[in-house]
């Protein structure tokens, strides 16, 4: 993080002197402030936006915690490659470059130019009775996520979002959140991809048992990610940390991505200044997580899809924030009288 040359007062003054009542653009003003602060300029620009979707399989899926079988993970990766998923449609719509990463899917995709092979293993272990991954695998994920972001930064990208795909990953994310925030897992768990009440009760019971098994695990983020995380969750965490370190805007998607962010934040709290929370998902734990992070999401559309869809849908709001800051007239330039002082 370099030393700022533009003061926060200068940014706020530019926002306040636009031809509008003070604060009248609401959250858009906060967003403009954040973008200008991150870029250390009064004339910010968004260049070559990217979204990286990390995919991985989860051993915990074999414990009956998801409404879908684990083979949906490789099937959805093939759907991404074919351009048929929601994230394909939304990134295409908004001119965002989409990168697909196999972080650890239990499938051999062979060579495919549309899929980045970063496979750490063929899925995690079920963390009910053992660690999901080794410490070495976890660190490999963090390093690979960082490496991918460095490559993207070299293309001139200064705004990057992250998404994920992995059947069972709400179970993994809920458990990581529970451990890192010391909140009962029942409060962190939702219906994921569409569980009924009985399946939800089973999911809570399985995860409560898993957390008891990992009681001795310290609460440092790397240990927690290794014990209960997913390859895509850990890789996204490393990617977010590196994006912030390189001075990029970090777009945080829904629940799973916010848990990756939580782990990243526990490693380096300065990531906070670079993060834009894009969507508050319909997952029960997400509202609680955002509250604990003192974060407000730009959108609340009741989505629970992941894939980075919240980032893609929120991106035009970043464009609007930059546009008003750069193009909207000031009171002075427009010859408009300001509110009279009493």
How does this structure look, described?
- The chain is an alpha/beta fold.
- It has one domain (50-324): Rossmann fold.
- It has 14 helices and six strands.
- The chain starts with 7 loop residues before the first helix and ends in an 8-residue tail after the last helix.
- The model has no long low-confidence stretch (mean pLDDT 95).
Mean pLDDT across all amino acids:
95
Distance between the termini: 42 Å
Series of H and E elements: HHEHHEEHEHHHHHEHEHHH
Shape: globular
Number of domains: 1
Radius of gyration, in angstroms, nearest whole number: 21 Å
CATH classification class: Alpha Beta
Instruction: Tell me the total number of β-strands.
Output: 6
Examine the secondary-structure arrangement and name the CATH architecture.
3-Layer(aba) Sandwich
Question: Short summary of the structure?
Answer:
47% of the residues lie in helices and 9% in strands.
